[in-house]
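Much of the work behind modern protein science is quiet bookkeeping, done one molecule at a time. Below is the pair of lines this work produces for a single protein:

***
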Amino acid sequence: MIDNYNKIIAVVTGGGSGIGRELVRQLASAGADVAFCDLSPETVEQTAALVREESPNVRVLAVQADVSSEADLEAFRDAITTTFNTDQVHLVINNAGVGGGGSMFTTERADWERTFDIVWGGVYFGTRVFLPLLTAAPAAALVNTSSVNGFYASIGVDRPHTAYSAAKFAVKGFTEALITDLKVNAPHVSAHVVMPGHIGTRIVSNSMRAMVTEPTPEEAELMLAAAEMFENQAPTSAAEAAEIILDAVQAGRWRILVGDDAHRLDENVRANPEGAYDQPFFTLL
């Protein structure tokens, strides 16, 4: 378990915007040297510039990488070990993700699989690639970002949500299974699963960049409007979410719900799992 972020080396995927950017900023502010990656080179540089201005006394490494590519993450790891002259890291947050792949019927297969490969593959490859560096540290933490859609596979009674939900369920189950695996094989490394509710991020607009199939102008306009509404109407900001996550990891909590809506949904699903996908359930959300 990590009890202090000062002087540690932290790794964050998806650090170009949203919760990832705020995690990078807050870790650097706490005194951590931070390495982060993102799919967009523009947002990578924006985050790096913020951190260098706000926390000039820490080291920051910013890399463009696609987390669905194990080779990209291996190159990211190698850049960390070279730049920071280290064989260990203390904190890895597999945070990168996109939305999409809603339907097995109407979504193009390439877009469905692209969503799944980023959301699940990014966590799996991130864990595979960085686990040796985590276990080399005297104490370390692995944090994987799932979602409320990792325990509740719906965003509405008439809105299919298959790829993202399947991937987030996989992240949650994988991380819970790692708790035992780490206790047996690396007890000095802790595992934590994060399940955010509605957070004010740019995941909708970022998801458009990750799509394989080009949307029509009409679809793009609708998606951009939805992205703006999603970010602006969120009950929890990205900065608030990052603070909740970092405080929980430091406190040793492995199951991290983020936002009052996440806690409320968790309670409702547990109270009525059999009826969780029936129409009356949605009146509780």
